[in-house]
Amino acid sequence: NAGVTQTPKFQVLKTGQSMTLQCAQDMNHEYMSWYRQDPGMGLRLIHYSVGAGITDQGEVPNGYNVSRSTTEDFPLRLLSAAPSQTSVYFCASSTRGLNEKLFFGSGTQLSVL
Amino acid sequence: GQNIDQPTEMTATEGAIVQINCTYQTSGFNGLFWYQQHAGEAPTFLSYNVLDGLEEKGRFSSFLSRSKGYSYLLLKELQMKDSASYLCAVRKGGGNKLTFGTGTQLKVEL
User: A42 and B96 in contact by Cβ < 8 A?
Assistant: First the structure.
């Protein structure tokens, strides 16, 4: 099993460009989520999904869209990139249960110039 | 909202014991997690507490007091590879929506 796979690993964008960060998991996990990590701020939840066809906003959703058409995939779309979106992005998944530990992807380092 | 506080940095000696504290304020508490994150890597799960008391897993133990909004992670027999950031995270309600603290950077020295 590959676990949680994120692509790309690095990306540089110009302000105003759009792009999609890909996330796929092969563990048949119901829950998937996107976090961003900034120095001194900790991990912050952007969007999450409790199953195919269901998504909801997290703590910092502005400027990002998500969809969950399949159990395996949970892409994150930046509509019009801004320098404030320069960050490291992590996708995570988990099962439904009491001990719902998150499995994280390897991360995407995004720079917006 | 949720406030989670943990020290920014700690230094300890190889072979020693270190305790990393985490305090939190939240309603609807439904579990506290500890994750380890090495520089440039993804966080990995260490421990989970939902009831008061101590959970032991090898060299790592985690304690929770819900009435005090307090947890600690105890690392024994420190090794150089334990140098990493340790993240405290609180779950409110169901699902996998965690609120993370800013992390404690632990440096293990010879």
Answer: no
